[in-house]
tRNA (uracil(54)-C(5))-methyltransferase
Amino acid sequence: MEAEPVIAAEPAVDESKQEVEKVVPEEPVESAPKKSDEFAYLDAAGFSSERFKIEIKNLPKYYGINEMKKLLNVKLSLATNKIKIMRPGCPFLFVCFRGDTERQAAIKAIDGYIWKGKKLQALEAKPSPDPLVKRRNESTKPDGVVSVKKRRTLEESVTALAYLSYEDQLKQKQSEMHNVLKGFGDEVWKSCPTLRSFIEQKRKEHDGLPCKLEDIRGSPQVDGYRNKCEFSIGKDGQGEVRVGFRVGSYSNGFLEVESPDQLKHISEKMKSTVKLFEEFVQKSEYEVYSPETYKGYFRQLTVRTSNATGQVMVVIGIHPQELGKEKLSELRSSLVSWFTSEKAKEIGISSIYFQTIEKFKSGQNAHPTTHLWGETHIIEEIHGLKFRVSPQAFFQINTPSAEILYQTAIDLAGTTKQTSILDICCGTGTIGLCFAKHCKQVLGVEIVAEAIADATHNAKENGIENCKFYTGNADDLITSLVRNANVQKDEDLVAIVDPPRAGLHIRSITQLRNARGLNRLIYVSCSPQSAVKNWADLMRPRSKVMRGGPFMPKRAIPVDLFPHTPHAELIVLFEREPEQDEEEEAELKKDETEKVEEKEEGKVEGGDKAAEVVAEEKV
């Protein structure tokens, strides 16, 4: 605080002879609004691994998150808590640990370590600021008003194409798929010089694209098609509790949640379920969870519905904070009472789950759920088959359009009763089971054990006996699946790949490339832009790692599963020319013959030399 100046007494003055000076009172100066602490979350959130972060520099140009995890956690035996890759190919990244001892051990092990020809550097890193608080501080005006980016409506954020007719939406998506395939051709042309003549030839044949692009297949149901939604719980701009969607991202300064009432792609049944739960939260003694303060309880509501049966499953996500067993038990009981009311029965709620949403613990990849009441699953139907769907299992969100998607894949695969299907990332077995009657056998793999349990049950429930499903990472099991398929000379093998948004790991691509007898591959992508690298890797020429011949794109067919949004699925048919395998086998046989001949020549030469030595000794 500044000290007030000491004013000395002035001598008396004859005011009659003195000019009067007007004194204008100074306006009070408003102090600038106080900035919020961007690192307050480190104390408010309890434990945060941001406290124990390091930066790793001088990374190689090409590496993946799984490679980095293997290096740090397996090869160097470090206990990482979080790995933050800024972007693909970034020369630096950040790694967080659970304590300073682990952090210092990591710096010692990594600094100076040679990886992929690069000498790594490791040093301590500062915690990241809270993005919401940082944005507020950056945009706070002198009057204390926070200016954020222009706020879009919820409809603009969630259903960006809803203002267009459905015909115009399909035209826009067709154009986008054309751009994606053009970019795919550019990527192959740039990264595979030996394929440039092939790409140029295909561009002439297919309007500048590397393969034929067919017309998009529209969705039979345009409005209210979503069978699953995850709703946020928070407060709107007026401070009212809402269950719906966040208008913008946390990092852009948005916390407000708005009702989904005006969204076209959500069914009335789902909207009624949201409204029912919103009333419960508004009346509850417990606050909604705040991602800014980490306080509060209600975090998320997941709703799944069935087109076939009208069933509704609700999964209520809660952060328990310090609630004891008794309080949690009371909360669960009140939820069951609320969701079994007459109003809930009218909606069709048939299943209630309770989910605990906290920070993941080491080795945890899903938030635990507890069944509270009703059916444990909902039943959906595709192609006349019944599918059991559990709370966390993957199932296409647009059931009528999924039927078109799967039929398109079946048509492209061209299967016979002599065809074995590899269903990679099979989920609850929907694609594989739809293929079952068109082929000899289906072998599926999925990392989520709960989904595999559903797939096995679905096969049994539908009386399908030629399908087997395995729990595990596709990166590790594709070779085993190929071996188990036991494809004979007069049979063929087809792979159906339906990976998560990020695509397949390079290890899976390598195993598919090296699979003998696999000459046709159907790639189903919900994010075609992200799949381009996978597609390019399927086309690359043979190498020491990818010994099998390349797969070439033949046809691409978009299918719209997401009306009113910019997204669409894209199915691409890849084929490996049969003569390439024959050439490969001939080359391998030739190599083996040459090795045998060299070995025999070595024996003969060795025998002749021995005879000469014996003769010299005798002389």
Summary: Residues 228-382 form a domain with the OB fold (Dihydrolipoamide Acetyltransferase, E2P) fold (CATH 2.40.50.1070). The radius of gyration is 32 Å.
